[in-house]
Prior knowledge:
Elements: E1 2-6, H1 12-15, E2 20-22, E3 26-30, E4 45-49, E5 55-61, E6 66-73, H2 82-96, E7 106-111, E8 120-125, E9 128-133, H3 136-140, H4 142-152, E10 158-162, E11 178-182, E12 193-196, E13 199-202, H5 218-227, E14 232-236, H6 242-249, E15 254-259, H7 262-275, E16 282-286, H8 289-298, E17 303-308, H9 320-336, E18 338-348, H10 355-369, E19 373-380, E20 398-404
Parallel strand pairs: 1-4, 9-10, 14-15, 14-17, 15-16, 17-18
Antiparallel strand pairs: 1-3, 2-6, 4-5, 5-6, 7-8, 8-9, 10-11, 12-13, 18-20, 19-20
Amino acid sequence: MTTIILKPHKEESLKRFHPWVFSGAIARVLLDASHTASAPEEGELVRVESAQGEALGVGHWQVGSIAVRILAFGVQELPADFWEQRIRAAYRVRESLGLIRTDNNTFRLIHGEGDFLPGLIVDVYADTAVVQAHSVGMHRCREVIAKTVATVVPQVQNVYYKSDDTLPFKAPVEGDKVGYLIRNTSPESEEFWSVENGLEFRIDWLRGQKTGFFVDQRENRALVERYAANKEVLNMFCYTGGFSLYALRGGAKRVDSVDVSQKAIDLVNANVAHNFPKAKNHTAVTADAFEYLAAQKNAGRTFDLIILDPPAFAKHRDAVKNALRGYQRINAKAIEMIRPGGILFTFSCSQAVDKEAFRLAVFSAAASVGRKVRILHQLHQPQDHPINIYHPEGEYLKGLVLYIE
């Protein structure tokens, strides 16, 4: 195995169990005899040692500023049952949280660094697990990951691999980036339903965003249900309508769902019809968010409850300034359209935007409109999206619930 030697004093973060080794911390690379190239292959396992020769851990090598993602600390090789240990431990956490029930078979099984498996995401929808690799190392391990997930999680009969949009750009990847790794029950995504807190959602992991559904808003959707009774609700950036269904179950007077994607709107309508076949108080609209809000304002419409859950406005730090302007602009438009005594649920899923910057953007939006605003809740990602305490970068979802006078 190739050995990565760090510069003096660069081992401190690894001794604090931070799972990333940055390229600038590396003094030299000692290739083993199997290598004919001048550098390790992307995705291969490497050992990491301090300048004094202390074993710091084993991880996946990758090209870029993050050179190694550590899988196990203080060892020189992974134990034979490494994958079974890690995946079973993650499953036990979900069991202990009470997420696996007859009325809830939708949950995140593996959340990257939060489950000590950096570069790996696994979401479970009924009897199908959807695996995403964010590193070439995890891509190379996809077969053993799939087999272990199917062994550890009793409900999983199929494992679908979906990494075409998540693997590093131009990475030397062998094998398919999408497709079934295990298929026993032959699910058809167009008719595949998964249950979240008693509501059934049609999941399209073949063509949908991420793994097919945004599992991370489960608890926040339930909070919307608590506030929705007798309210006129606007769900912006609705995707497949998660917040809309919870609002309808909560007794909303009316729910409008808006998304720029017609495919998403089709799924919203299917989900509403499936769960509330007699509902007459839901409308789904395909429209740009900013244009829709401007048109509704010009028409004099207002709402009791608005949900803003946009896609990431900033996917890297260079885009943060523009993202914050976007958050300020969209929140100002929403605050203007909320009736006195109304509620705004507003979110950012941009990891590059920290919670203080997001809160300042929302504050600036409220100040620009001149409304009195109270914070009722400060929201974040749910229990099955844990944050490794040694890796605070894993905190990405931020939300505020605001009371607007």
